[in-house]
UniProtKB/TrEMBL annotation:
Catalyzes the dehydration of methylthioribulose-1-phosphate (MTRu-1-P) into 2,3-diketo-5-methylthiopentyl-1-phosphate (DK-MTP-1-P). This is Methylthioribulose-1-phosphate dehydratase. Its EC number is 4.2.1.109. Belongs to the aldolase class II family. MtnB subfamily. Binds 1 zinc ion per subunit. NCBIfam families: PRK09220.1, salvage_mtnB. Pathway: Amino-acid biosynthesis; L-methionine biosynthesis via salvage pathway; L-methionine from S-methyl-5-thio-alpha-D-ribose 1-phosphate: step 2/6. Residues 12-200 form the Class II aldolase/adducin N-terminal domain. SMART domains: Aldolase_II (SM01007). Keywords: Amino-acid biosynthesis, Lyase, Metal-binding, Methionine biosynthesis, Zinc.
């Protein structure tokens, strides 16, 4: 069982992550949503429709792991169910950052299959568990839908076949990256975005 983490610490970490992500240009308009696990049963999540570079404490609320607000009148992110499903699937997931970068959006549309495979980059070592550039990194790619319940079920069924690591892509939509805490989620997000940019450049050059 996890010791609960004070909400104020996680709020500040998510607000800070939002400013950084916005500075990278990975959350244009009101795109993206973030969360952090408070305990075994609750998470802090961004309210729907907020600009992620301008978050304050008033833009975050507590939800249970079914995505229901707890003691808040704010409307949680439209994609809360994906966050809470990740917390349900893996107790080691402590934070989830969802972004809408150009690279993740375009690459996910260029990749026709259910998986994006990446290999040969030193930056693969930014992803937990990787000690070499050589092994393939495989990221799940899901079709986009506005039905978050359905997408959460697809995520769970893919996870049952094989647990996913680091993140997944939603086609034409963006990236979900996670980690044991906000710092690790940020590292995975940054590493994956770098790898996507490289892959996109390779494909633009006709190498792949
Ligand atoms: C700019 S619209 C993007 C939304 O449809 C959605 O994909 C998104 O990431 C943000 O939704 P939100 O409800 O603000 O968390
Ligand atoms: Zn989104």
């Amino acid at each position: 069982m996890r010791a609960p983490i004070p909400s104020a610490i996680l709020s500040s970490a998510l607000i800070d992550a939002g400013r950084w992500i916005d500075a990278q240009g990975w959350c244009p308009a009101t795109g993206g949503n973030f969360s952090a696990r408070l305990s075994d049963a609750h998470a802090l999540v961004t309210a729907s429709g907020r600009h992620k570079g301008q978050l304050t404490d008033d833009d975050l609320l507590t939800v249970d792991l079914e995505g229901n607000p707890v003691e808040s009148r704010l409307r949680p992110s439209a994609e809360t169910l994906l966050h809470t499903r990740l917390y349900q699937l893996e107790s080691g997931v402590g934070a989830v950052l969802h972004t809408h970068s150009v690279a993740s959006t375009v690459l996910s549309r260029l990749e026709p299959g259910d998986w994006l495979t990446i290999s040969g980059y030193e930056m693969q070592k930014s992803l937990n568990g990787n000690t070499s550039h050589e092994p393939d990194i495989r990221l799940a790619v899901f079709e986009n839908t506005q039905d978050m319940q359905a997408l959460a079920e697809q995520l769970a069924s893919r996870w049952q076949q094989m647990p996913l690591n680091w993140g997944f892509l939603v086609r034409g939509h963006g990236l979900y990256a996670w980690g044991r805490d906000v710092n690790e989620a940020r590292r995975h997000l940054e590493g994956l975005e770098f790898l996507f940019t490289c892959e996109l450049e390779m494909r633009r050059l006709g190498v792949k």
